[in-house]
Amino acid sequence: MIEVQDIRLDPESRRAWHGEEEVVLSRKEFDLVLALMERAGTIVTRDELMREVWHTNFWTSSKTIDVHLGWVRRKLGDDSRHPRLITTIRGQGLRFETEGHTL
């Protein structure tokens, strides 16, 4: 079980919870959150995410990560304008925050 802030992931059963409520994530959404939560507090580059989540070295679309990230943020209750879970570090990548805060 991986737990960061009030998000829990069980990689074995591929289940996710926000607090006590289970959140249904698609396979790619789960893999994206897992890749970020496994390295919570550190920046994960978009290239790393494309390799780990989409298993490709090339970009299928410049918006692939952004679209999936939008779905994940909605499901986890994270406001993209004032994120407390997943922050975008411009020009570097994404970071799953270990403590809730806003930019």
TrEMBL record:
Residues 1-98 form the OmpR/PhoB-type domain. InterPro entries: OmpR/PhoB-type_DNA-bd (IPR001867), Sig_transdc_resp-reg_C-effctor (IPR016032), WalR-like (IPR039420), WH-like_DNA-bd_sf (IPR036388). Coiled coil: none annotated. It holds the Pfam family Trans_reg_C. PROSITE patterns: OMPR_PHOB. Residues 1-98 bind DNA. Transmembrane segments: none annotated. It comes from the Bacteria. Keywords: DNA-binding, Phosphoprotein, Two-component regulatory system. SMART domains: Trans_reg_C. This is OmpR/PhoB-type domain-containing protein.
